Amino acid sequence: MTVSETTLPDIPGGWTERQFDIAGRAFTLILPANPDAFLDDPVVHARHDQDGYMPYWSYLWPTSLETAAAVLRSTWTPGTQALEIGAGTGLTGLAGLAMGLEVTFSDYDALSVDLCLLNARRNGFENGQGLVLDWRKPVDRKFAIIFGCDVIYEQPNHGPILGLLHNMLAPQGECWLSDPGRHQSDAFIDLARSEGIVVTGHPVQREPFRGRPDGVTTIWKLRRND
Predict the structure, then answer these.
(1) Which domain holds residue 122?
(2) 159 in a domain, yes or no?
(3) By three-state DSSP, how is residue 187 classified?
């Protein structure tokens, strides 16, 4: 069932609505009320057995708040093509739309993509686009900007993400990957640099989020060296 303005598919734990105030801008999101409920869902278990699927999209990852704030303070040219990978509920992409970017929300799960587009419409943005995307199978499209929030925490994802950047990041484009300090981030950065990607780290203070201690998130900015 496709997410629409009037109906949402039944999901474990149901849906909720939350407002996030970021860098002077308010966004209202529909998102799963209890993402942990997916972990007991037989459908999720079956998909996990088939291809390792996990419903990560259903969580609002806290680093998306810092990334959204950084996007809202950016100076990109309106109309620039941007891709959010692992979009989840779409908060960072919404910030991009608010700055006038042409944003494509992408995720492995089609429901996530539909939800991102619903959240875009609910916040007044009709020009968002969606793409169901497996990082292991990049598509033939180029984007000047690529965002990803907390996506480098598992080593098996490092190669596919870098492959995607080599294929989908436009020449002279920039990718922002935010990370809260997970132990696999250094391995990803080392691998990226070994493949000729220019990487710089930009620490930012964490945005307030219930249950999370104060600290620093690093926004890694990656550019292809071509």
Answers:
(1) 57-224
(2) yes
(3) helix
